[in-house]
Amino acid sequence: MFKIVKKESLNPTVTRMWIEAPRVAKKAQAGQFIILRVDEQGERMPLTVADCDPTAGTVSVIFQIVGATTQKLNALNEGDCLQDFVGPLGRATETEGLKKVAVVGGGVGCAIAYPVAKKLYGQGCEVHAIVGFRNRDLVILEEAFRAVSHRYELMSDDGSAGKKGLVTDALKALIESGEQYDEVIAIGPLIMMKFVSALTKEYGIKTIVSMNPVMIDGTGMCGGCRLSVGGEVKFACVDGPEFDGHLVDFDEAMERAAMYRDTERHAYEDTCNLLKKGDEAHG
In the CATH scheme, what is the code of domain 100-258? Predict the structure, then answer.
């Protein structure tokens, strides 16, 4: 069992938890993920390692409350325990030799982008962070990003936070102003990563994206997380989760992701009803 030692709300739909998992904390690196189960009957859910403290033996994960499992997870509090917390899994972000990088994060994807920016910054790389949200209420990790970025560009769809516009607007402006990047690392919604990759391809800038399709076992056995990259089948859990953004078939990935929306919605609604009944019973 893995104890929740700290829980905090980052915005109305995003929660951060620190989990007591000494072995994972000792080995986890930026870009890797864990798979957890809330209880014995729970489904296996992958979450990227947002941060870790090897000394305290804790690992931080950030999740958006969008489905049944995240709803159940969010119902837990400090002192409660998770059934499973397995990892680290996947390949760590490759940062060796990079001198100047633009890290682009969108929405809750910023939870994955932050540890990458932190690692690069710690290695002496010049980091330009470009993050985007729909509005001010959804902004997360602003101070954390500022602490590990030489330049921080905050964008919002409605202009209520930072500048009005998309992350691609900010990235294009920086490139055209003369900024030269060894690499762009984009992490967020599929549609965002698709357009970031399309933009950087025009300028010949190497671009890495983090793919997070549905996973079950996390070892490449189930095939649920398969992707087409450069015309070849890859598995996000073992070959990734990071891939060359110029080679990923984003349209196929988005089509596959849409297959599960109705099932996820029904499961979420059922879980909400069960949790509500439980609260009423204890009330």
Answer: 3.40.50.80
Residue type, 271: T
User: What are the sequence ranges of the domains in the chain?
Assistant: 2-89, 100-258
Quick one: DSSP state of residue 205?
-
Q: Do 2-89 and 100-258 fold alike per CATH? A: no
Q: Write out pLDDT tens, residues 11-47.
A: 989 999 999 999 999 999 988 889 999 999 888 888 9
Class (C level, CATH) for 2-89: mainly beta
Q: Is the pLDDT of residue 261 over 80?
A: no
Nearest of 74, 88, 84, 85 to residue 17 by alpha carbon: 74
3-state DSSP assignment of residue 54? coil
Amino acid at 45: M
Residues 6+ apart with CB under 8 A from 160: 135, 136, 137
